[in-house]
UniProtKB/TrEMBL annotation:
This protein's name: MFS transporter
SUPFAM superfamilies named in the record: MFS general substrate transporter (SSF103473)
Superkingdom of the organism of origin: Bacteria
GO molecular function list: transmembrane transporter activity
Residue stretches making up the Major facilitator superfamily (MFS) profile domain: 25-512
Residue ranges, compositional bias (Basic and acidic residues): 546-563
Keyword S-adenosyl-L-methionine among record annotations: no
Keywords for this protein: Antibiotic resistance, Cell membrane, Membrane, Transmembrane, Transmembrane helix, Transport
Lineage: Bacteria, Bacillati, Actinomycetota, Actinomycetes, Kitasatosporales
Amino acid sequence: MSGTNAASFRLRLRAASGGANRWLVLAVLCVSLVLVALDATILHVAVPSVTEDLRPGSIELLWIVDAYPLVCASLLILFGTLGDRVGRRRILLLGYGLFGAASALAALADNAQVLIAARALLGVGGAMIMPATLSILRQVFPDRRERALAIGIWTAVAAIGAASGPVLGGFLVQHFWWGSVFLINIPLMALILPLGRWLLPESRGTAEGPWDVVGALMAAAGVLGFVLGVKRIGAERRLLDAEALVPLLVGAALLIFFVRRQKRRTHPLIDMRMFSRAAFSTSVGCIVLAMLALVGLELIAVQYLQLVLHLSPLETGLRLLPLTFAAMAAGATGSYTLARIGPRTMVSLGFVLTAFAVLMLTFMGQQDRPVLLTVGFILLGFGLQTTLFAAYESMLSEAPAATAGGAASIGETSYQLGAGMGIALLGSVMNAAYAPGLTHVPGVSAADAAGAANSLGEAYQIAGALGGAAGQSLYAAARHSFVHGLHVTLVVSAALLLAGAVMALKLPRVMECPDAAERDGGAEPVRLPAQAGSESARVPAATPASDRDRGRDHGRDPATRPA
C-alpha cells in the first residue's frame, strides 16, 4: 500500500471508529436529512401553481401532496431493518440515487399522474435515507456524550429542513416555476452521493436467520393503511366515513398481526423486547405525543397567519423562523443540558415549556401581535426540540447497536404516526369549535353556512360571492369563529403536552455513560468502503468491560468479539 493510500486509510479509519472525522460523517448525514425534511413541506406553497399548471382533480391533488409522506412512513421499518441486514451505508447510498432521480422526474412532470409517481418514489428514497442516517450516527458515535451532541445537531437540522420548506418554496415559486422546488435536490444529491460513498462507514447488525420479507411487507401495509385512514379522518372530519375507517381498521389489524409475528419468530425484524424497557417505550410514546400535539397545531397556525392576518406564504415562512432558530439553539445545547439534568427532567421540562408557549398563544386575536407571536414561537421551538432531542437520544441509547436501524425506523415511524394523528385530532377539535359559530349568521342560508363551515378559506369565497351586508356578516363571523376554534385547539394541545410531561417521569433520572462503548447486541464490525490500492477493513468497536470480564459471546475470545 502506498504512503498516500495508507494515510487515506488511517483518516477513514478514524472516521469510522470515532476519530476527528466522525463530524464530517455527521455533516454528510445532516445534509441528506435536510433534503428529506425539506421535501415534506416545500410543496405546500407550490400547490396553487401546480393546480393551475397541471389541472389535477381533487383526488389527484390529494395524492400529489400525500404520496410522499404516506410512502415514506410506510417503508421506514422495511428499509430500517433491511439496512441492519445488508448494510446501512448501502441502503443510504441507494436512497441518495433514487431521491435525486425522483426529484428530476417530479421537476419535469407534465401531468398529475407523473408527479404522483415521482412523489411516491421520493417517499421510497426518503424511507431509505432517514433510518440509515440515525443508525449510522449510532455506530459512528459509540460514546454516549458525543452521540448526544450529534443527535442534538441531527434533530436541529431536521427542524431547519421542515421549517425552511415554506420559506424556500415561497421564494422559488415566486421567482421561478413550481418544478424548481424539486430541482434544487439534484445538485446537492450529486454532491453528497460520492462524498457518502467515500466517507461513510459500512455497518450492519446481526445476520442470523432469514430476513422476514412477509413481516416487512405486513408492517409497510399496516403503517400505510393506518396513516392513510388517520389523514382521511383529518380531511373529512368524519370517523365513520368508509374511506377513512376501512384503511384505518385494516392498517391497525396488520400492525397487530405484525407485532404477534415478531414475538413468535426466532429472528424477528424488530425485537419487541425493546418495548419492555421503560426508557425505550416511554421515549417512543413521548415522540408520538409531542408530534400529535404540535403538527396539527402548526398547520392551523399557518392558516391563522395567512387567512386571519392575511400574510403572504413568504411572510408566513419568515414569521415561523424564530421557531426554527430556537430549535437550533435547543439542539446545540441539548447534550450539555441532558448530561446535567438527565432525560426525565429534560423531557418533562420540554413538555411543560411547550405547553406554556401554547397557552401564551391563546392571547392571539384577529389583530396582529408580532411580539407575542415571536416570543410564543421561540418558546415553542425550544421546548419542542428539547423534548424530541432527549426522547430520541434515550430511545437510541436503549437500543443495541445491532438493531440500530430497526430502532431508528421505530422512532421515525412514531414521528410520522404522531404527526398524522395530530392533524386528524386537532383538526377535528378545530372544526368542532369553528363550525357552530356559522349556523345563525343573518342573511346567510343554511346551505351557504354549511359550506362556510368547511374551512375559513371557503367561508371567504362564499362571503365574497354573497356581497353586501350578508357577506360582511359571514366574513366577520368566520374570522371570529376561527380564532375561537384556534383558542380551543391550543388548550387541548396544552393538555396533551402536560400529559406528556407526566409520561416522561418514567424515563431514567440520570444519563448513564459507560466508560467503554455500549453493549452492541452482536453487531458486525464497521466496514470501511474499499479504495483504490487498499482493501476493505474491519474496525472492531470497543467491547464493554463487563462483557469482557464475563467472557460472553458463546465461548469466543471476548477480546475479539466484533461490534
